[in-house]
Every structure is written in structure tokens, then in C-alpha cells.
Amino acid sequence: MTTPARFLCSDAARLRGDPIAGTAPYGSVWILIEYRAGWPSNGFDGLDLEPGVKARVRSAAQAVRARVLLIRRHGRLRPDEGPRWAVLRHEKDGDHSQEWGTWHDDGDLAEIVTALRAPGERGRPPVVLVCAHGMHDTCCAVRGRPVARALSEGWPQLVWECTHVGGDRFAANVAVAPDGVYYGNLDALSAVTVVEEHLADRIRPDHLRGYTDLVPPEQAALSAVLHHVGPSGRHDYVIEETVRDDARWRIRVTGRLAGLSTFEVEIHAHRAPPRLLTCRGPAPGSAVYYEVASLRAG
To answer: With the C-alpha atoms ordered 24, 30, 31, 32, is the resulting torsion angle positive or negative?
Structure first.
């Protein structure tokens, strides 16, 4: 009797050709907590922390729609210094801020609440987060850890493994914060190229899931523009206008620098048939995808 092959959601998504553009979750604030022991399947919520501190951090995060991620260095390295925490923000003016600290007992994590109200430090290099949350989804470990290893060799101070970032079927997933850029469908080779280009302020559209300060149809429109014009800086193009008509969007994408064009992009949304979208999903789900109907220079 033949044993059925193990279902892997990322393999299934690649076979289906699931579109990747327009799949980045919305958000502009990230809370990172270094946790070197095993990660529970539900990440921060599953940690055995002092209940009062945990509730304060969770409440403060929800108030600003922050995503709370556990992080660790690849290989679970345990450096001499204590574990760290960070608050990363993508500011409305396009600048970024970061606030970092260390923690030795649960009470120290209450500093995160204060940091969420602080201005933070600007000008620091971004953090490269690789989802390697195997307890949440098998593909995050199978595909994420080789990517984390490759990126850690090149940028050991910038790269962290992290818990669930969303979109398991697009593993390996990389989120660059506080830039607010999600990449997916990566392997070790493509990840090195993508991150190298990103750090040089050249966003490649090939593996781009989207910018987290945009809603999904806007992400898809900007991705279409980058496919047309080639890699561009994170803030070279902005969404100038978005008009929705039921499941259709007309989106104007404008270049901010001299010599860059304006584009009118029409996006159509459609819902795919129910499918298993994660390795451990209890039931099929139906994803919404965004198709580029037209793109023209304005």
C-alpha cells in the first residue's frame, strides 16, 4: 500500500499558481520579542508569561494594530547579552523608527508599552524577518529555515527568524520592517538577491507580496507598475487615488521623482474556490486575488 504524500500548502499553491501580489497584511507597527525556547503554535499568546504584563502588552499592541512576533537568531544562538525586544514603526512621512531594549524577567516586557508611546530612533537599518514558525505551519520550517540560514550568513546582525507573518502558502516569507515590505515564494538563492536589492533600495517585484501601508488592491497595482518599470525605491511611487466600483478598483500610481511616470491601473478582485490554504488548516478557505485588468501611463 502506497503512503499518501504529505500535504504541503506551499507546494500546492505553487502548482496552482496562486497570485502573490496583494497578499501582505496591513500594518505599520511591529513588536518583536526575542524568545529562545520553543515557540508555541500561537506565538506570543501561547507564552507562559506573567498574566498582567502579557495583558498590558497585548492591549497596547491592539490599540495601535501592532503585530507581535517572537524572534530568535537562526540556529537558536544564545549570545552573551540578554534577549531583546523592539518596537518598529513605519511613519506616515515615510521615515522609520525603532526602539530596542533587553529583558530578563517578564516584568521587563512592560517597557514595550512605554516604547509604543516614545518617538523611537530613526536612521537604523531595517530588520529582516524570516518566518520559520514550524509549530504553526510545516512549510514555514521546511522552506523558511534554509532561507534564514542563507540570509544570516550575509547579514547576521539584521536577520531574525520569526513567528507567523501570514500567508503560509507563500513560504518562505520574508518581512522587512519597519520598511513594511513583504516578500514570498523565496528560496535561499532568491532570498539573498531580494534582500541585497532591498537594502540598496531597489524593490524587486518578482517575489513582492506588497507594502503593508497599502490595502491589497493598491499593493497589486503598485506591483504591476514595478513589473512594468523594473525595480524601484521603496518610496519612488505613491498611490495618489483609489476609486472602487464593487469588485473593481481604478488606482493612480504616481512617481515621486523627476522622470518617473504616472500610471492608471485597473484591478479586478475575484474569490478563488475553497482550498486548503495552510498545512494544518482544519477546513478549506477561499482567498481573494487581485488581477490587473489594464495598466497605462497617465
So the answer is: positive
Question: What would the pLDDT profile of 140-179 be if each residue is shown by its tens digit?
Answer: 999 999 999 999 999 999 999 999 999 999 999 999 999 9
What is the four-CA torsion angle of 9, 134, 90, 84, rounded to 10 degrees?
A: 180
Q: For the chain, where are the alpha helices, taking DSSP H only?
A: 9-16, 51-63, 111-115, 138-154, 188-199, 216-229
Ranges of each domain in the chain: 9-213
Residue 18: strand, helix, or coil: coil
Please tell me the CATH superfamily of domain 9-213, with its number.
Answer: Glutaredoxin (3.40.30.10)
Torsion sign across C-alpha atoms 158, 163, 166, 171: positive
User: How buried is residue 1: exposed, middle or buried, by Cβ count under 10 Å (0-12/13-18/19+)?
Assistant: exposed
Alpha-carbon distance of 56 to 44, in angstroms, equals 13
The 3-state secondary structure of 30-55, one letter per residue: EEEEECCCCCCCCHHHHCCCCHHHHH
**Residue 127 · residue 152 · CB < 8 Å:** no
Cα-based distances in Å from 263 to 75, 201, 217, 237, 292? 44, 21, 14, 10, 12
Per residue in 62-109, pLDDT (tens digit) is: 999 999 999 999 986 666 778 999 999 998 776 799 999 999 999 999
Alpha-carbon gap, residue 169 to 10, rounded angstroms: 4
